[in-house]
Amino acid sequence: MKIVVVGAGVAGVAAAELLQRYPGNRVTLIEAKSQIGTGASMDQHGWFHMGSLYSIQSLEESVTSAVKNVRILTRYYESYVNQETAEPGNRNRNTWFVDEPISYLFPGGWHLPYDVRQGAYSKELDGFLHFSKDIVSAGAALGQLLKFNRVWSGVKIVSSDLPMRTKKILDDLVCSFQTNGGDIRLSSKYLSHGSTAAGGVKVTLVDGTTVHADVCVVCSGEQLASCGWNAHRLVVRRSPIMVVTPALCNENIVVVEAKDHASFSHIVHSHRGQRYSVVSGAYSADVGDEEGSHRAAMLLKQVTRTHFPSRFDASSHELYFGTKVDRLHREDRRDYSPTIVELERNVIGAIPGKFSFAFLLAHNLALRVMEGKDIPSSTALSGRRDTAMVATPKHELVAAALLQARRSLQMDRDRPGYKLDEAASNLDDVRSAR
Ligand SMILES: Cc1cc2nc3c(=O)[nH]c(=O)nc-3n(C[C@H](O)[C@H](O)[C@H](O)COP(=O)(O)OP(=O)(O)OC[C@H]3O[C@@H](n4cnc5c(N)ncnc54)[C@H](O)[C@@H]3O)c2cc1C
């Protein structure tokens, strides 16, 4: 079967990779930009949702999706997830996940739906997550325990969610896709499509070339939203993310506040051995709403300062926006479940909801396109790799510039003006690269 996948974010890459595993399939992955993963997939903060948070919050559909997603990961991607390098001292750098769990903090007064100490939700997640951490809970003076500036009390849950190495995941999927015979066309923007007399699809690109296929899968939420497919209740929002160096603290934490307050997430990543914080919160604005975006950014800064006043003020930070596309599900509630919509005959739209859920999305898509035929396994990881083909996560680019700016300042205190200009121009480069 000939299949065209439009959009090489995690959704398109994961879908294309699974579809290309079937003998006889010929998948063409079309990406508008000159690299893979330059959209939301590289703007995000690298937090892989195994489902812990959703289950604590009783988001039933989300936790069901997360559990299915993890089952799919262990079933179809085992060799990828556990990949290790023989290089001494480098053992962890090649795995998809960083082996440092994400803790959820529930400040005092927040009423949990049930007693987490009974491990009420762990039964859903336990048993098949051989790479997960145990789920435990503890009551403590959390602020002091975590060396926060803020003093509070509540419950801390060490979850099975983990930070992810986004680029590593995409590098492996792309390598497998190409080794299995998949075709990638970069700098190729989808413009329109039509049906052919034989019942297939003709996809026209902006440069006028066409690609013929039996099925076309559109894996770009923004493209779907801008194409009049908004009847499917797509919501496009801009959301700020802030990179802070040095890291504000060494733990991955998500502060889950009471309903009226936005939650706050803090994930630690590293660049060349230097740890930095990637912080975010439930702040967003409609695309085009400059005032709302500014407000969201200010709120994120404010809440970061509330949690770490002295460390935040002594740090360097830089903020950028990512664009999220979600679909409203029942009762206007976001449940983050992946969405697959039949747009027309042989034309399918697909949105993962979360980077983490792209595996469930790809699995469901593959079974739908291949009419339920079992997905073949793939261990095609030893093929030729062009790591420059996949973009670097935005937070890493920003952190690299911030770290370099800090280093320059330290190295040449006599000429701070010159170095500050240089640091500012590094950051300008990062900003204008977008
Ligand atoms: C600020 C922020 C933080 C987030 N944090 C997390 C997180 O921590 N964990 C998590 O799991 N999820 C997170 N998410 C959500 C996650 O990033 C997205 O759900 C996921 O990356 C979407 O993947 P995608 O492949 O659908 O979209 P994208 O990555 O945006 O891919 C779409 C691709 O389609 C291409 N494209 C667009 N139009 C065309 C066209 N006409 N022709 C060809 N190509 C086209 C684009 O260039 C792009 O490469 C976050 C999102 C944001 C914005």
Automatic annotation (TrEMBL):
Domain of life: Bacteria
Keyword flag Acyltransferase: no
InterPro entries: FAD-dep_OxRdtase, FAD/NAD-bd_sf
Location of region: Disordered: 414-434
Domain FAD dependent oxidoreductase intervals: 2-313
Keywords, comma-separated and alphabetical: Oxidoreductase
Name of the protein in question: FAD-dependent oxidoreductase
